[in-house]
Every structure is written in structure tokens, then in C-alpha cells.
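quick one, 555 residues, struct below
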Amino acid sequence: MSTTPPTSSRFRRALLGAAGALALVLGVGLADAPAALAWDPGPGSGHGSTALAPRTSFEMAPDGSSGATQGGEGIPNIDSVKKTIATYYGDPGTGIANKTASPYISELDGILAKQEAQLQAGYDRAVKHGQKPAIVLDTDDTTLWTYDMEVADMHFTFNPAEQNVWVQDQRFPATPGMVDFANRAAAIGYTVFGLTGRNDDQKAATLGNLAKVGYTAFTADRFYTKWTGKGASQQPSYVTCAAASCTTVEYKALTRKHIQDLGYTITLNVGDQWSDLQGGYAQEALKLPNPTYYLPSPDLPGVTEPKLAPRTHFTMAPDGSSGATQGGEGIPNIDSVKKTIATYYGDPGTGIANKTASPYISELRGIVQRQLPVLAATCFVEKKLHKNPAIVLDTDDTTLWTYDMEVADMHFTFDPVEQNVWVQEQRFPATPHMTTLAAVAQKAGCTLIGLTGRNDDQKAATLGNLAKVGYTGFTAQNFYTKWTGVGASQQPSYITCATPKCTTIEYKSQTRAHIESPAGGRYDIVANYGDQFSDLIGGHADRTVKLPNPTYYLP
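---
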């Protein structure tokens, strides 16, 4: 069948003539019909179009609030963020950072070389003014490097019990370049203080770890850890907080004030989090890059430090390559991305999406409302003209909604075994508003065809799940799942791939070609719906419609 939109004047007149009747029959709102009925193929329609590609420019507030305003395509995709972070740290995909060479190490080398060149002059200046110069250093990702724990072990989901194992076992390597920097400062004459969010129960192990990797300047009396509230580990008198639980800035800024009250002048305060630096009581603040987590904290009352704030504009390629060029502050922080995604899905922090109202649901409603008039009219007219119209629908996050599995269960780390449990138990709700779109298309004359990356062993359960949540048009004959390579489940003859393992685009585009061929039913695919660009690339559909999904990326 044709892979270009049917835009003849006869067809358009037929569409317009059918629209009014369909509005009455199907209850389709036609407020947007004049523009829609022109049947513009839309961005990215057709084989080889460069428009079928993810966004590369993003505006993202660090607190997650952008999830209410940006739309799904305007939120940095979390899989792309992970790949970008891996590139930056020289991680080949194992969760282990390269310890000798990476963009991260190169950036730190540049930052520290510039700062180290100023150490002697800063010291001399302080002494000239009768001061006792001091440097304050945070611990995690300032003096000790947590990447391997955060990624290989925790998969970006912080676990305090597991973190304590790493702390007590003194597993952390030094943050690149920081041993030489701290020891050099001490040799010049600076008094070096440690100031960390680790607690008193972790103090001895942390000092042991610092010594183990080569730091010589830290001592127990100049190393501040946070109180636990148990036994002798109580909040010190020099820290007063607005609430029962002190903020990071209250704890760290008022501890720096205490150091100054002891007679020292903090000429430099170094940390990887903005909350390590906010609140003053240091002549200069040095931010080290860290996109692997974000620990926000409000500044002290009456203190305004606009320069001590995260970036909000980012340029990010979907394949992770930006990690080689953007620098740590130019990479979307993964914790901020998670919060932005949660806001978008109406997730209060439980990993469970709001099923009735959210920016995601509103965006899908708008997409479906814009699609319905022209989709219904096209299906109706093509059916009358015996063109055998059909729409092709992906499954995950196109017809069935995976958010709760991806976030509450898997914490954004895909587990195929666990996914199969969800599939076989038919746990997925319908993607918002998509049952309506499918029902309208079917009623107007289009055949529903499913085309999913789920495999043949999951086909029966997927069809059962679709029926369970209200879809009525899918059958075993018009629902395509991927072969397993076991028994009768083999690669079909109509699919040929460049390597033994077919890509998603090879599988899906050639299956669409088959659907439009005589052997596949000689359908005319009037629209192809998917939440991944790889669901849509490769042609063999009159129109492609991308549904938003920042929760994973399948290139």
C-alpha cells in the first residue's frame, strides 16, 4: 500500500463531507477539524525523515517543577541522561567509572589546576592580614568518590543501609585530583577541615578511608560529621535551626561560622552540591561537578546567592555523547530529572502515577482530541473506498501504561524477569485516553493492529491485558509480537536484518511493510502510534504520531 498520505482533492472532499456525520455518530469534537482535515503528514512522517528524533534542548528547574509545564518531549529522557552521565565518567556501561581518564577527570584537572595556582597567593594574603587561613572540604564526591556505589551498586537509587556498608568498609576511592590538592594546601600552611553530611557513627571509618587513599591533612578534631540524636551524638549548641530537622545549609553554614568563631578564616569552601556552599561564612566557594545526585536545601533566611544555583538550560544528545562535551554542570542532574518526571505523571514520590489527573494525562488528552476528527474521517472514507484502512499501535506506553512498573517497582532500572511477571499477570492499566482513540478508529472502519517489542511468549497475556482494560479490536491474527528464537517462535521470512540481532526499527518497519503487502492483509496504515521514535521510523504509514514518554528510551 502507499506510504504517502492520500491528499487528492477527491479524498479531501470526501473527508470533509464525512466529518459532520462522523461527529454525530462518534461524538468526535471537531473544534480543530479545519486544520486537521488537511491531513498534513505531520512532523516525522515518512521514511528517513530527520524530524523523527528526540529533542536536544531542555529547560529544567532543579526542583522538578518543569514537569508541570514542559510536556513529555521537553523532559530529559532518563535513559539518555544515564548514558550521558556514563560517558562523562568513562563508564562503559558497567556502572564503574574509569579511574584514569574521562571527561570528568579532565574537567576536575582543569578546575583544580586553576584553583591550586591561587593557593599560595591566597595564603600569603590571609597571613598578611593576620588571619589563620583554612579550607573546608565536603566528603562525598568532593574528597571521596561515590560513582561506583551510586551506579553499579545502587543504580541511582540511594540506599542508606548499603551506603553505610561502603562507608564502614572504606571502599571509596579518592575524588580525582583532590588528594594532591588537599595535601598541597596543607603543605602551604592552610588548616584543612572536613565538613560532611555523613553521621558521627561513620566518622572513624570516613577518616580511615581518607587516610587510606592518601589524604594527610584531616584529623578527628577538624572533621565535622552530623549528629545522630543518640547518646552523646547530639546537635551542637552552635547550630540552631528553624525546624526540628536541620537543613543541610543550616548545618553546614553554621558549622563554618563555628570554625570562624574558633579564629580561622575560611578562604575556600569546596563541595559538589550547591547546598555544601550556600549560607556564606567562606570567602570563596568552589563547586565540583556531580550530575549523579542532587541534595537541595534552602539558603539561610535573608541570604541570597544567585550564583550558587544549578543550571536550568541543557543541551543533550539522546545517545549520551553530550557527556564528552557538556561538562558536569551541563548534564541534567538525574535526581532533578526524576522529580520532573514524577511531577509530569502526578507521582507524589511513591512511584505510582496519578490515574485521574496529571500533566501527562492532560497532554495525552490533547493529542487524542486533535487526532480523533481526522482519524475517524480517514478511517470512514477509506473503508467506503475499500482501501482496507488500519492503524498500528505499539503496546508499552502506547496502549498499556508501564509507569508504576518502571518507577515504583524497578526504580528506572529495567528488569526483564520482573517485567514478564507484570505481563503474565496482566497488571498494566490502559494508557490514558488511548482506549477512546482505538474505539473511535475501529468504529469508523479502521482495523486495529498491534505491533510490540514484547515477545511471542507474552502475546496471549498481552491480548488478555488489552481486553481487560477495555480494548476490543485486537486479535491474535492482527497482533505482532517478536520471536524468541525458541521452538516455533522464529524470525519471519518477511524480516531481513543487517546483523543476527534485528534492531527495533528493522523489526517494526518491515512488519508494517508486511501488513501493507498482500501476504499481510493489504492494509493501508493510515496512522502509526508509538511512544518511542523507533516505533515510528522506517515508513510504511501515512502518518506517525509520537506519544510522550521520558521514562525510558529505545533507540
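The chain is about 35% helix and 10% strand.
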